[in-house]
Design goal:
Largest sheet: 5 strands, parallel
Number of strands: 8
Strand content: 5-15%
Order of helices and strands: EHEHEHEHEHEHEHEHH
Helix content: 25-40%
Length: 262
Amino acid sequence: MNLSDTHNHFYTDAFDEDRDYVVQRAVEQGVKRFFLPNIDSGYTDRLVQMNQKYPDLTFPMMGLHPCSVKEDYREELKRIENDLFNPSRLGDITWFGVGEIGLDLYWDKSFFAQQQEAFRVQCEWAKELGLPIIIHVREAFDEIFDLVDELNDDRLFGIFHCFTGNEAQAQHILEYGGFKLGIGGVLTFKNSGLDKVVKNISLEHLVLETDSPYLAPHPYRGKRNEPSYTSIVAQKLADIKEVDISVVAEQTERNTNEIFRL
């Protein structure tokens, strides 16, 4: 059985002490692909290093996270754009998506307009390069829908990362035509309600993720998340769908290949 963790940040310092063991545990659990969205330019060197160290395992992406959109966001976007469009300067690296990008109004609403502009700009880059976008949305579903409604066309596709919305919001996303829902550890939380939403969504619309080191699934909730826990999410999804985990693995792998054009 092969699984893909379509969203993790195992390049961050949360894994500096035991990264090789984290990789080993993941592979033992069948997790053979790590898709790595960027946060901001401060992490680019780490992304490159991880891709060089684990070239057959990692699929890096380039983008500016909404929580990193601050006063200097235009300068930061220029750095991201340079790395995205000129990857040869970073060595033998290929970008597999533009992300993670989006809106986050949970901690700070003061840069909302700047987050919107950064999202629009990065969506246009993705369209130009034919790459998927990885959308982060927290406390901002209505606002992100306004943007994607405006920008959506047959060149825009990707993943709504860490989907935790309701059934109506899921349907809104699927009606765009080119998007999958990223399902992670929240699916295992007792009172999240995500299990009821996912039960009514076809497997063909879902991909697996962890968002490591964040949002570890039960029974590790509150501890560091890691890519091996993708298998826990897969098993929970299989239980909800009343199918064998191999069915979940096969379909989500097809979905991952579709989105990332693999």
